[in-house]
Every structure is written in structure tokens, then in C-alpha cells.
């Protein structure tokens, strides 16, 4: 009887290593996509937090100017044009910090600036521009909102 010697060239091992490499590359690519989606979701949440803080500051600034009970009327005075309100110096000189209810994890308290646009002496009424800015969990996330209020 002759002994049978199988000849193996290692093709199965080579195919298995290539398949493992392809599967590993697909897994790494999938993880990168998940990480990017997680970052986008975190940024969207941060922006929404800043928007809600700015909205709260805007409403509180409107109430302050109306002099409603429990609020102190803000001093009046003209400010630079609306696009100049975005300047840091204007915020530092004129802004009032607004307190938020507990549970808002913002990096910095929202701020509000008000300015009188015009005064109608015949009707004893005026229009006030209220500008508010809110911050998210990071101070770099900032939202600015404006409204005009007739008093």
C-alpha cells in the first residue's frame, strides 16, 4: 500500500486572512460612522439648549421692560445698530444676566439687552428691541434672538 501525502498550498489560510481583513475594515468604518452621528446629535442637543436659554432670556427681558410685577424696569437708552449688538463690548457694558430654573446645564447664564427704538408722545407708547443670547453646555455654542415689543 502506498502512503497518501496530501499537498497543501495554504490557499485556505490566505482566503481566511483576506476575509478577516475585509470584515475588520467594514467594522472600523461602521464605528466611525456611529461616532460622527453621536457628535452630530450632541451638537444638536447643545444648540437646542442654547436656543431654549436664549428664548427664556428674551421672554424675561420683554417682561422686564414691561415692568410687570416682580421685575425691575431696565434702564432705557439707545444702543448701536442691531448688527453691532453682537459685539462683545456691547454685551459686557449693557447686558443683564438672566437666571434660569434649576436643571438647565448651561456653561454661562443667558443675557439680555434692551433698547428703545422710538417713542410716540401722543399715545405715550414706545417700541423696544430686546436682544437675548443663550449658551449651551459649551460656551462656544451661542444663540442670539431678537424681538420688538410695543409698550
Short description:
The chain has 151 residues and is α+β, with helices and mostly antiparallel strands. Helices cover 42% and strands 21% of the residues.
Question: Mean pLDDT across all residues, rounded?
Answer: 79
Kindly state the percentage of residues in helix. 40-55%
Give the number of helices. Answer: 2
Tell me the major beta sheet.
4 strands, antiparallel
User: What is the radius of gyration?
Assistant: 30 Å
Order of helices and strands: HHEEEE
Structural class category: alpha+beta
Describe the strand arrangement of the main beta sheet, using strand numbers. Answer: 1-2-3-4
Stretches where pLDDT is under 50 for at least 5 consecutive residues are 69-75
Strand content: 15-25%
First-residue to last-residue Cα separation: 112 Å
Task: Summarize the structure in words.
- The protein is an alpha+beta fold.
- The protein has helices at residues 11-66, 88-94; strands spanning 96-97, 111-120, 125-135, 142-150.
- A 4-stranded antiparallel beta sheet has the order 1-2-3-4.
- The termini are far apart.
- Mean pLDDT is 79; it is low at 69-75.
Amino acid at each position: 500500500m502506498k502512503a497518501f501525502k496530501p499537498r497543501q498550498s495554504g490557499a485556505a489560510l490566505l482566503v481566511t486572512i483576506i476575509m478577516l481583513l475585509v470584515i475588520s475594515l467594514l467594522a472600523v468604518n461602521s464605528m466611525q460612522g456611529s461616532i460622527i452621528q453621536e457628535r452630530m446629535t450632541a451638537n444638536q442637543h447643545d444648540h437646542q439648549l442654547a436656543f431654549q436659554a436664549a428664548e427664556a432670556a428674551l421672554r424675561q427681558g420683554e417682561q422686564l421692560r414691561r415692568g410687570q410685577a416682580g421685575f425691575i424696569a431696565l434702564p432705557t437708552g439707545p444702543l448701536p445698530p442691531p448688527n453691532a449688538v453682537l459685539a462683545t463690548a456691547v454685551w459686557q457694558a449693557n447686558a443683564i444676566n438672566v437666571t434660569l430654573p434649576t436643571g438647565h446645564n448651561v456653561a454661562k447664564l443667558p443675557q439680555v439687552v434692551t433698547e428703545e427704538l422710538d417713542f410716540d408722545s401722543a399715545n405715550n407708547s414706545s417700541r423696544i428691541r430686546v436682544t437675548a443670547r443663550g449658551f449651551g453646555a459649551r460656551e462656544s455654542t451661542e444663540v442670539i434672538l431678537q424681538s420688538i415689543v410695543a409698550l
